[in-house]
Amino acid sequence: MKAEDSAVEVQRLVATCGGALTVFNGRAGLELTDCLRAGCAGMIPAPECADVQIRVYGAAAVGDWAAAEALYARILPMIAFAMQGVAMFLCYGKRMTAWRMGLPEGVERSPALAPTPFGLACARRFTEALGPYPGA
Description:
- The chain is 57% helix and 4% strand.
- The mean pLDDT is 95.
- α5 crosses α6.
- The longest helix has 18 residues.
């Protein structure tokens, strides 16, 4: 089952399911480490930082929570920026993904949120902090 809720609410869902369902959470990785601690089998990753989210999951899976938290701290500003709402996620999330992959950023179709110079500067800063996707 895919949830779209806080780690606190997802933990309640996991407990209610009692192991009968495998629970994943979405929200692009918000509260990733806490959702794993709450019993999620995994997360639906944010494409702009899925490579790092995979490493967070790997560290958590072997019990290296210090490494998982350190990796998560690197991507949390990017996730928080993009997840302010669907319009932000579509406008800036797709750009950050494209930039990390070395692809053209594309264009908006009306009535989409148009990027601002400040928003683009923020998105670039988060993207540059992670660097390109491996192999890009």
